[in-house]
Amino acid sequence: MKISEIFKTKRVLSFEIFPPKPTSVVSTIYDTVDQLRELTPDFISVTYGAGGGKNNTETLEIASVVKNTYGIESVAHLPCINLSKTDVLEILDDCKKAGIENVLALRGDAGSATKNDFQHASDLVSFIKANGDFHIIGACYPEGHKECASVVEDIHNLKTKVDAGADQLITQLFFDNQYFYSFRERAVIAGINVPIEAGIMPVVNKKQIERMVTLCGVNLPKKFLSIMDRYENNPEAMRDKGITYAIDQIVDLIAQGVDGIHLYTMNNPYIAHRIYEAINTLLVA
Ligand code: FAD
Questions:
Q1: How far is the CA of 226 from the centre of ligand 1 (A)?
Q2: 33 FRET partner, CA 20 to 30 A, in 27, 65, 88, 272?
Q3: pTM over 0.85
Q4: Rounded distance from Cα 148 to ligand 1 centre (Å)
């Protein structure tokens, strides 16, 4: 099923997982999916290794098992910066064969072997549109993408991506909901009227957040920083506070009519369970 059908009926709850590192046992990802299934997500998306070369087969394999064995709609992430048009056609063909109908079309971040077929995610979106019948999702950035000179320029570029055929957007993580609300207003003004899911990452240790801030360039509110300072040497308390912070964000987003919540699970079903228990009754539109 295309995810656009789900948005017509309810507020969406989705989870993101990533293929396990080569040193991990692949079956552990299915232990994770087993436990996530109990939370009846509307879909599970599977990331595609940063930089995205053609040899990354785990993404499609896991997305296929999620869809065909677990019966949960899946989304395959597809970063194009290191792919040729021929590579993308092959991947789309594999998606069709596996019954995967939903793709998150991304640019990715420049690795060493970039190819020149796609410059921006919007180029990939048009290409997918012309070569298949997929529900296409795009990434968006409440605080603006780190490379973009201004949030206004970024929203114009986002409009180009939606006009190219993106049916839905998922945001990068953010820790201050005001950024999301301002972004949503800019999107409306720019004429972007596809569903926007808020991407929420529960932060459960200080190293993780430091890495994310460097990688994504997001701001940390004072309240958040003081939680980290207070509990950084108490892992259990830090985890609980991180979960509570994420729940507070989600409760507020739902009250403000968000289209959906996309939880960056970090392959940790315990955290997803704790959050789900707190918010599931609120999800009913
Ligand atoms: P784009 O939409 O191309 O935007 C990138 C930059 O280019 C922005 O600054 C934008 O303003 C600018 N731009 C866009 N179009 C134009 C234009 N026409 N002219 C001038 N400037 C333009 N990465 C992975 O490698 N694998 C993953 O699985 C993955 N999953 C992700 C999931 C989500 C929900 C998000 C938010 C990000 C994910 N990423 C992933 C990271 C993503 O690849 C990076 O954030 C990357 O830097 C930008 O990707 P994009 O698709 O947003 O690019």
A1: 30
A2: 88
A3: yes
A4: 11
State whether residue 41 is helix, strand or coil. Answer: coil
Domain boundaries, the chain: 3-283
CB contact at 8 A, 157 and 117: no
- What pLDDT is stored for residue 258 in this prediction? 98
Pairing of strands 12-17, 260-264: parallel
**Residue among 5, 16, 61, 143 flagged as catalytic:** 16
User: Which of 59, 140, 145, 192 is the best mutation target for the ligand 1 pocket, counting ligand atoms within 8 Å of the beta carbon and taking the most?
Assistant: 145
- Is residue 180 within 8 A of residue 226, CB to CB? The reply is no
Q: CB–CB of 187/117 below 8 Å?
A: no
> Which residue's CA is the nearest one to ligand 1's atom 17?
157
CA neighbor of 12 nearest in space, from 26, 24, 1, 21: 1
Q: What is the CATH number of domain 3-283?
A: 3.20.20.220
Secondary structure E strands in the chain? 12-17, 43-46, 74-79, 102-106, 135-140, 168-171, 196-200, 260-264
What is the distance in A from the centroid of ligand 1 to the CA of 106? 5
Q: What is the pLDDT of residues 158-170, one digit of tens each?
A: 999 999 999 999 9
Please tell me the predicted confidence (pLDDT) of residue 49.
82
pLDDT digits (tens, 9 = 90+) for 191-212: 999 999 999 999 888 888 888 8
Nearest CA to ligand 1 atom 52: 139
Element (H, E) at 219: none
